[in-house]
Design goal:
It catalyses: L-proline + NADP(+) = (S)-1-pyrroline-5-carboxylate + NADPH + 2 H(+); L-proline + NAD(+) = (S)-1-pyrroline-5-carboxylate + NADH + 2 H(+). This is Pyrroline-5-carboxylate reductase. Its EC number is 1.5.1.2. GO terms for molecular function: pyrroline-5-carboxylate reductase activity. This protein has 271 residues and is of the alpha/beta class. The protein folds into 2 domains: 159 residues, Rossmann fold (3-Layer(aba) Sandwich), CATH 3.40.50.720; 90 residues, ProC C-terminal domain-like fold. 54% of the residues lie in helices and 13% in strands. The two termini are 37 Å apart. The relative contact order is 0.10.
Length: 271
């Protein structure tokens, strides 16, 4: 289906989505973006051919508006967007923690809003995105958003009440993996391996383990037990992780991320 798309905010996620849409067969003339920094706007136009516009132009010309700014920048953006937006325009929010009710209060009555929690692997076409409909969004609107986001990864539908949990789990999730990989690389160096060798060993192990989870359909416990021989090296390592409470710490960390997501939403909740 041919329709025009404007991405408001051309950071890493905004650029990744635009590039994915272009690579997925969208016409460059149907893609536009807004960007506060002229140098950044010129860079994207030169690299891809996308048209840089202001918010008012995006609101008037685009069939789908994708909001990809930082949560703290949402209020002034909605001030610009609201007076220029047609009620038939689909608004897609990629802003962590912001509820659809915020948009519905600030935009013309009846504008459909779909909330999305993506994550940074979008830049390599491997995003995990969860989508939720607002009050006026229909099944057709959700299908449109699924179509858009499927070019940069996997999409699931969840009730909006679960979006804070999604934010904590998959939205922040890549950071947890990067943190673990960083620690394991340092462990390799501690054991005497060159950094380059340690990095290659751990990164490929992470890629392979993720592929096993995705392709075999086996439960993580089953896959872990297959590596864990009686009285072997792996069980000794697992014992140390349990002694140091790594599992409990991870649960607490994800709960803390969920709580922060809820807090961000409350900061913009006027109800």
């Amino acid at each position: 289906m041919t329709y025009s798309i404007a991405v408001l905010g051309a950071g890493k996620i905004g650029e990744a989505l635009l590039a994915g849409l272009l690579g997925g067969g969208r016409r460059v003339e149907d893609l536009m973006f807004t960007e506060r920094h002229p140098d950044r706007a010129a860079e994207l136009t030169t690299r891809y051919g996308f048209r840089a516009v202001d918010v008012a132009t995006a609101a008037k010309e685009a069939d789908v508006i994708v909001v990809a700014v930082k949560p703290q920048d949402i209020e002034p953006l909605l001030d610009e967007l609201g007076p220029n937006l047609d009620v038939g325009t689909l608004v897609v929010s990629l802003c962590a923690g912001l509820p659809t009710t915020l948009y519905e209060r600030r935009l013309p009555d009846g504008v459909p809003v779909v909330r999305v929690m993506p994550n940074t692997p979008m830049v390599v076409g491997e995003a995990m995105s969860a989508i939720s409909p607002g009050r006026y969004a229909t099944g057709d609107h959700l299908a449109t958003v699924e179509e858009l986001l499927s070019v940069v990864g996997v999409v699931v539908r969840v009730p909006e009440s679960q979006q804070d949990a999604v934010t904590a789990l998959s939205g922040s999730g890549p950071a947890y993996f990067f943190y673990l990989v960083e620690a394991m690389i340092d462990a390799g160096i501690l054991l005497g391996l060159p950094r380059a060798v340690s990095e290659k060993l751990i990164i490929q192990s992470a890629v392979g383990a993720a592929a096993m989870l995705a392709k075999t359909g086996e439960h993580p416990v089953t896959l872990r037990e297959a590596v864990t021989s009686p009285a072997g090296t792996t069980i000794m390592a697992i014992r140390e992780l349990e002694k140091h409470g790594v599992r409990a710490a991870l649960l607490d960390a994800i709960e803390a991320a969920r709580d922060r997501s809820q807090e961000l939403g409350r900061q913009h909740d006027e109800d």
